[in-house]
Amino acid sequence: MSENKDLPVAEQAASVEGVKFVYDFTEGNKDLKDLLGGKGANLAEMTNLGLPVPPGFTITTEACKTYLDSGEEPAALRDEVSAHLDALEARMGKKLGQADDPLLVSVRSGAKFSMPGMMDTVLNIGLSDKSVQGLAKQAGDDRFAWDSYRRLIQMFGKTVLGVDGELFEDALEAAKAAKKVTVDTELEAADLKKLVTKFKKIVKTEAGRDFPQDPREQMDLAIHAVFDSWNTDRAKLYRRQERIPHDLGTAVNVCSMVFGNLGPDSGTGVAFTRDPASGHQGVYGDYLQNAQGEDVVAGIRNTVPLADLEQIDKKSYDQLMQIMETLENHYKDLCDIEFTIERGVLWMLQTRVGKRTAGAAFRIATQLVDQGLIDEAEALTRVNGAQLAQLMFPRFDEDAKVQQVGRGIAASPGAAVGKAVFDSYTAVKWSRSGEKVILIRRETNPDDLDGMIAAEGILTSRGGKTSHAAVVARGMGKTCVCGAEELEVDTKRRRMTVPGGHVVEEGDVVSIDGSSGKVYLGEVPVVPSPVVEYFEGRMHPGADDADELVEAVHRMMAFADRKRRLRVRANADNAEDALRARRFGAQGIGLCRTEHMFLGDRRELVERLILADTDAEREESLKQLLPLQKQDFVQLFESMDGLPVTIRLLDPPLHEFLPDITELSVRVALAESRQEPHENELRLLQAVHRLHEQNPMLGLRGVRLGLVIPGLFTMQVRAIAEAAAERKAAKGDPRAEIMIPLVGTVQELEIVREEADAVIAEVEAASGAQLKLSIGTMIELPRAALTAGQIAEAAQFFSFGTNDLTQTVWGFSRDDVEASFFTAYLEKGIFGVSPFETIDKDGVGSLVKLAAKAGRETRPDLKLGVCGEHGGDPESVHFFHEVGLDYVSCSPFRIPVARLEAGRAAVQSQGSDHR
Prior knowledge:
By secondary structure, the chain is of the alpha/beta class. The protein has 38 helices and 31 strands. It has an eight-stranded mixed beta sheet. Strands 24-25-26-27-28-29-30-31 form an eight-stranded parallel barrel, surrounded by five helices. Helix 22 (548-563) crosses helix 38 (895-914), helix 25 (615-639) packs parallel to helix 29 and helix 37 (874-883) crosses helix 38. It starts with 8 loop residues before the first helix and ends with a helix. The relative contact order is 0.06. This is Pyruvate, phosphate dikinase. Residues 551-903 form the PEP-utilising enzyme C-terminal domain. Residues 74-302, 310-359 form the Pyruvate phosphate dikinase AMP/ATP-binding domain. Its cofactor is Mg(2+).
């Protein structure tokens, strides 16, 4: 290595392979999250800002990925770590784990995206039977040293050696019971020394080895454990839930220890530059004296509000407030900060852009615009459609008669009602059986993640706004109430005792309000969200009684509408739905399913149509259906006056309009046995048998019906044309688009279109109106997508029916597969999300892209839209923007979500263009 003698010692090992696996905190910055993970990148950024960060270094995500792929760490990694450790020891003036005055370090995970509590951390590495004596002497505090040592053995045993953490907890509880104290801070040095001995015996028994006394072995094993924690079941589950890619890996941060458990002038806390629950500015966070960081997030001791720090340690409080302002102005966003105070000296251990509730996200985005920190385009990237959807959920009725039994910290808003369950296994089991549940725990830990996902809400008797339950719930948009101290939770007996002695048993219904922190017995009724009232036009921004949140949503929606290129239409089948959709901001109807108009009182007419033996009988049935259909369309055109209305001609199999075959067979058999008249039932039964198909969704439906049943489609086209003519005569502005479903070849469309054009011409001649009706098709079969260039010769527009296209591409029957094996596919990671929820970009999406391109090559002015429920899915909307569609269509309730995401898609695509 003589040729490298001029390189800094920390870089010599890296240069051997030309890959650098370790970075000092002084070398990185906040833009290196892919390489250094979020925690490492932000530690580097704070170091660059001159903030008080304990010295340390970061092992990159590339090292983790190499380790996970090969099962071994990169060949150069050990030498690089040694070089950086030597540099750290030189800077600190002490050696890792030395006997007289040991350097201690933490080994902490840090992925690109925050995964609170999902991966591993080990504190106090470097302590041993010898160095604990030196630490006690150096600190002048025996209790502190032995407390730190028992913490190391406990965390190392559970995290690195796989020992059941309950064994350590039980031993700690037994020590407190023997001493007749309730909190661990009341244990003395002698008690903790005995506990260390007990903990080491637990390690020996459970792990089959002694607790390692070599500090470097401790550090290396902890680093490997952090790498391994990337692939734990809980980490995989969290990534699937949050749609975080599985191939990113985690960085590892090795940081010199600072101690919050040195007595009353020391402590640890978590702070937010704004309230993550509401978005309001102020002093928000938790502080815990004489504690290490894990005590706060674990919720094992209830914290005090951050504001209390001003009385406890004014100097540190003032410095922290200044640092918080610096970080928020630098990151231009809500910052989540972890800090430790060691004997009156403040140290920053982490910062990140903080998780927040949906309401806080909208408020903060508009506040930052008003403060001039970000512009409107950036504000749109700070909110999303999933958050908007959360804000549209109902909330508890404040005027209802309720039985409040407790109140905790409002950690994550929402109104959640469900049966009380006390462990994650039961929460998952009951949820899969269709039950709504509330998961109740003293405090949650990462092992509770699957139960938290399954539950409607989470209630804990311990912890604060920065506890594991609160942070994870906010990230998932789950309702959560934490720190309800008056509730006595007994998980072993599966019960909760509330003030007054009432016992809530497992299965009893409870309600929790994540906006107020209130806990109720029984089911509390709900009322509409003010955000929905705003979209419905019942609450007006700027009015004296307007909700502050409504103001923020209104502004963000206005930003989105100004930015977006995609238009947003509604899936609506009647005038009532159409009017509601219009209030929600719909710019037309993208899908009117006419089959829904043939149900109810009209079923008998359809039966006659199906049973018709002669042309005359069939014509009579169609003649009676025509005025009913016409009135349907008149009402639709009136409610959507001036906006496009895409009407899909009859699509489902005709047997859906006939009675159930088993029920009808029984009726016929009974009539025959009683010798009663049953000619009509018999004809119906014969028709049902005649039309029966093994796979009706791929049988006689869509365009095939129009070709096989003479006059059916022409009747519908005539009704559309006459309705449009009537609206024109009434000075209306009908803009009808006729959509032919399930086309697989251009010849089908040509035949139907020729007949439709003839009918439209007749109506125009009779009414004297120029109707300008466009005719297009739904692309919902793979063959249609593959031959889109040919089909475009006969189509004026394409509407992608992504529900059926997904079924036919995957070979799935949606009605069957979602209940049968989708849960297993999601759990095994085959799907990150159901392809019926978010479009499968690689498969279905490729066909959409291909068809859009081919269609426009044939007909440059071809209008392109999508009308499956993907049209209201946030991630899918971005894809449709990229592909170049003109509009998306979705159910009325999802229109605001689609509008917002269309605006975000436009902003993000402009940003990538600039890059």
